[in-house]
Amino acid sequence: MLEAAAMASPAPQSAPIVTLAEVEAAARRIEGAVMHTPTLLSRTLSEVTGATVYVKFENLQFTAAYKERGALNKLLLMDEATRSRGVIAASAGNHAQAVAYHGRRLGVPVTIVMPTATPTIKVMQTEGHGAQIVLHGDSFDDAYTHALRLEQERGLTFVHPFDDPQVIAGQGTVALEMLADAPEIDTLIVPIGGGGLVSGVGIATRALRPDIEIIGVQTEFYPSMYCRISGKELPSAGDTIAEGIAVKKPGATTAEIIRGVVDDILLVPERDIETAVSLYLQIEKTVAEGAGASGLAALLSHRERFAGRNVGLILTGGNIDTRLLATVLLRDLARSGRMARLRIQLQDVPGALFRVVRLFDEHRVNIIEVYHQRVFTTLPAKDTSIEIECEARDADQLKALVDGLGQAGFNVQPVEIH
Asked: In what order do the strands lie in the sheet with 157-158?
């Protein structure tokens, strides 16, 4: 499997942490309470990437993420006394909603510890599923530590988001459905945060289809599992839109499993994750959160590696802030040349702006906003700088406009984004 595993000294054979039989039992256990989501061939994504792409839409679950599978399997395996005492989890996202939702369904009291900076909408959504919310600390690690303390103080049972064999078995049911619905798949690309999903998927896939290549994906900002497996040292920090896989400390159990079942782990940049979110909405007409789109981002980042392969992608979730989604979509339009902001220098005299606007009309480029800057500029007092936000049909139409402005004697500088 992974290079780091191949370099390690052979370990004594021991019983597997999670077996195919446990994954199959989890599938029977959660059947009917968790949606068997569709795995569909995407002809357009296949054309875009050069691979034959199958997408499993886990964003169609009731809480819009695959996390329901592991959380429910864990809850169902508890005895009545344990359930009646209640459970606790630390999460600011999909795991919190999964535990809260299925806890309420089963009559299990649920406490969720969230960092104090958790967006209000996520607190409200989790609270709406009947959970008691405790806000504590500035980070997930703070919330996690506090949840463990409350577990002991209140006699609750902790439901770990990934480092738990019963949770891993539940997540592995994703693979059972994918391989049944799309047996043509020869490569799986799976997002990795703490590693619960890829562990469960890897165990099931290795048992049923050992020929399939399994590739894990992490954001470049949080390569924690990649570093743990490879032995490399890279920082895990930064603002990422893939917060669902922004894990600083990967699981010990999952790391052990991943060494044996995953072929490679790829790191993807934020830009490709943003593009993937946009492509899912434009092409598949479906909403993907950053973590949910990271598999497609890996396909975009490493096209040659996957060219000609039958690739299975797991769209793991669709819980993304609407304002953030709007920003991602607009940034993608700018990168593709369909939106732009042009900084234009001109004389501050009557008719100057008209001459600029007339060129926009001639090139059929739509003006969205115009910003004048007369004071905070290094230009001469008789000159002005304007920024025009505009939208074009494509990059070629925009280039023709910029060339036309230059030929008319205007100094034009596009305001770039990265």
From this structure: 132-135, 110-114, 87-90, 157-158
